[in-house]
Design goal:
8-stranded mixed sheet; alpha/beta; 10 strands
Length: 289
Amino acid sequence: MHYEGNMIRPPSEANSILLQATVGCSHNKCTFCGAYKGERFKIKSDDIILEDIAFAAKYCKNQDRLFICDGDALIIPQKRLVMILTEIKKQLPWVKRVGVYANTKGIKMKTDEQLKELNELGLGIAYMGLETGDDITLKNISKGATSGTMIEMGQKIRKAGVRLSITVLLGIAGRERSQIHARATGDVLSAIDPEYVGALSLMLIPGTPLFDDYESGNFPLIEPIEMLKEIRTMIEHTTLSNGLFHANHASNYLPIRAKFPEEKEKTLRLIDEALGGRVQLKPEFLRAL
């Protein structure tokens, strides 16, 4: 396989075939993210992509999921993306699901009919970084979208039949807007109603603008208990018709995996137990990105 740069994939795609169709991220301005700093975004040539699909057809017969890397493969023009998915379907018929990262720009570039076409060709899940539903925080972290756009694009891709996994970041709003961020994020999640929500706890990365703000004293990193209070408020304000809300990433202090709506109240009680000191939190040295 022809891999370039710093490839990133969702934790749930750990055992998937990784097909790199793009390098980097077309936005690459989020203040907290250091994944693609220094990398210039590009779409790889069809020849290279097809070579890698042929390689997977020969050597990856035990993997039934495929993830198209990197940061926002959905931005690939429709004709080329259709070709890629068609070849995956043709050469890797055992692959049951194809996944991509998707941002609001990439979703907006596709019509409803185009998204449905991609779904019919095997695109089964998209991962979207919401981070926060608070518009002020979205602006502060240079996310490039408003909460309204997040809702509109999230609903759009779900309407096409593509399952949606949304990532939110605990601690991203700092201390002053912590609870505002939590409530607003719950409201946006409820409006989109995704199949999956993944909450990560902010870990500052040296070399990013947000890390520099922290070093200069302009961004306070909230304490573990404050993050627990934040996720409690977020869950309290989140209504999912049939979704999985999990915070079991290595960055989190309290592992959570709850089916909504039936396990929502049970999860709130677990957080209350942790806030009361009756459930032990993960020690700092065990946390990781």
